[in-house]
Amino acid sequence: MKKRKFIVIGLGKFGFYLAKTLAAEGLEVLCIDRNEKLVEDISPDVSEAIVADATRKEVLKGIGVDEAEMVVVATGNLSASVLIVLYLKELGAKAIMAKANDEDHARILELLGANRVVIPELDAALKEARNLINPNMLDFLPLLPDFLIARLEPPADFIGKTIRQLDLRKRYHVYILAIKNKHTDKFILLPPAEHVIDKDEELFVLGKKEYVEKLLESE
After folding, report:
1. 93-121 tens-digit pLDDT
2. Is the residue at 141 inside a domain?
3. Would you say residue 33 lies in a domain?
4. Residue 138, in any domain of the structure
5. Which domain holds residue 126?
6. What total of structural domains would you count in the chain?
7. CA of residue 56 relative to chain centroid, distance
8. Global pTM?
């Protein structure tokens, strides 16, 4: 019988111990991290561990993320985790579990398609507090607010203006999460305020459903 395969990206404390626990249960575990020492430390305990930059799409493609039962994004860096989750979705990952630093980070990862997001310190603290209040409570699941991410062509009045000038946060209560050039596939994650919107770009915006819909109506 073929072993269940898991991929763990990022070998901080969370990723390191998660990978070791999965491997101890007899699962096939592949680990990735840019830190050679961490990869060396985990190697005896898992099926395979490699030194690589998981924010590079070709690296993820080369390890067969679509063959794993789940890919765990255990890096705590916001930009890196967002980019990795985006690439995993594009490459057809079956399921994605991601680590977040706070609730805003978690919200973004869920909206990008992560099937499960954990905030280790917060999740543990809330769970223990609820266990103290009610020892019979096994677990709980916080509800995600009515947020979404939309991809849109920039309206005519956006062209030639900087993100700062557009001030979408104030005008529409939405955030530009990323920008992609339709012809070159150049992808800018969390673009700077000085970025000038071009007619050949697509915008990925994040916000509450009602506000994003209002922005889309303005196209």
Report:
1. 999 999 999 888 998 999 899 999 998 88
2. no
3. yes
4. no
5. 5-133
6. 2
7. 14
8. 0.65
